[in-house]
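call fold target=NOL11 protein
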Amino acid sequence: ISDQKPLGCWSVKHGQILTCPVVCNFETHEYIAVHDDRVLRIWKNEDINLDKAFKATLSADVYRIHSLPQGGPVVLFQGGAVRTLDVLLEAPQQDIENVVSGEAIRWSGAFMEGQEPVLIFTTEKDGDFFVYVQKPKLSSLHRYKLEQQESAKPLCFTAHITNQTVTLLCLYSNDSVYQVLIPLQQDTEEEEEEKEEEILSKSLLLNLSVSGAVLKGTSLVVLDKDHVAVLGSLAAPGNEPRECLTIWNTKFQTLQTSKELPLGTSGQLWCYEEKFFLIHGKVLTVILYKCETSSLAAAVGKLKDSQTPDVSLFLNWNTLEDEELVVSFQSQESVALKEESRMNLRSRRSSVAGEKPATLPVGQFLINFKNASNYVLENELKKLMARAPTADLQATIGCVVTALTDRCKRNPKYYPQNFLQQIIETHEFSYSLCPDLMAVALEKKDLPLLQMCLERFPDIPEEVTYTCLKAFLSISEAHLQTLDVNVDSVICYIDVEMDDEEVKSEIVENGFSAEMDQDMCDTKLPKESHGRGDGGSCPVGLQKAALLNAVLHSAYTETFLLPHLKNLPAQQAILFLRYLYYLYVKCSEKVNTTLPGIRSPTINQIMDWMCLLLDAQFTVMVMLPEAKELLSNLHKFVRAQVRFYSELNKIEGSLRELQRQNLLRESQTYSIEVLEII
């Protein structure tokens, strides 16, 4: 998620439909999917074609597959039957019984109780709701009827198991959360028959209202025994409803914290390993949180002083008008509360002015220095990074850079170029830790910093990469001469011109020279084309070449980058292609096709970018007269390469035989042999 790159993509054939969410088998590291209700597919990450993956056609329709870290995958059929995946694969066409009769499954969840998997699902029929509890390995099944609620019905369910008791939470349409307790026990057959007709009573756990505002919930998840998260629309009298993610303390009936989601959501909320997952606008948002033991002081303190980050049990979504330092730090570090007593926290609030900075949380520390002078701020930030614990160092650095970029946006005259470059050079950093950094650098035209980011960050979005490329190509060579650009990637191989005559090497390492290229193509290249399109001399200066090399090093996905490259101005596209062609020729002059220097582009990077640029701009280049010679020379050079390697392939067998003979020959024997290459 941090790199924003797709690691794998699989698709079913046209006309087939994935009918339940894909899960991962934690034991075998395989993916499990069901398409068209009953066709099971199992594959591994290295498999490319889903159509060639393992396939099993089942005898009944599947509702959902649940994967448990220690219990393996469990399959729930639409008829209510449950099978472990191992049992199902032994006989895929085995008969599957119908457990429910005319009931539609509304929700299901799988849990581990000791060493046994437990599957719980709810059904609906004619307005009545039922709860099923199954232990597939023990063939144990219990059915309950949920107590009806006048003028309200369940919207969603969630559950957890503690001390042999299932706690089922139900979000109802009357903006309330109810709790149902179901004991897990081994009953006799007679008791099981009785339990089928048992009606489960429920108790009111939480009213989703605060200060006259009511939360219309759409999704509910359990965080721990005292806290739940609800996603929904918060409606206050006289105001437009606002979609929010809220966290509630069920023990003290209080709203712990909330976050407005102005771009809208899909209405779904997932929680896994202390992370929230939700769709915000068109983006998958991941929010880390951490629960601590609930206390009345914390609940009341949060309501009294919602601006104090120290008393938050979770992420502090502090808005403080234009200041979002706490938000940034808490979401990256995932720790919102230090392990200190509430008494200490209360005493800290009363004496924060005399507190040493080292004892403050990073978010509060940065807020305290919000209005400090530039010199004081930078010195304090340096001290903060120096004393940050190793485990929190990256998050701290991200928060520091965010503080600097925020000040840059508030004060256009302020830009700590040297400090930012020092941070990027000496620490592990990534784009996602501070997305505004490269935006500010582009605004300030800080090309050396952009070069460092492109070379070091693994997760730069393709749109930002394209923006940097466009900026590098548009900047004048004269202006680049005034910048401190790192040219280590080009200084060892780029051609240098003296007195209008190019200094060129006469060594031919890869079996051909420029003259050979012309002979093989039966074409003479005009002398005046040198320096423009034949790859003889570099079409850009040292500094611009170094910047373009940084772009070649950046990670990208072709599908996302191609639409942006289509918008590259024609003249810039031709210049970039000329430089790529020059690099291609340079690489081909070397036996190992490797350019010398530090962070020099590889032959694969050069070829990939060349193909990508031609795909995006080919129609434009064909129509431009100034690109005709470049495309012609590129075609001739590639054709010469193909012919050359074709000739090498013809003697590959003889060369291998010669290598084998050398290995078999005794080192002390002297002989002269003649090998005829046919």
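return ok
The first strand starts at residue 18 and ends at 25. DSSP finds 20 helices and 26 strands in the chain.
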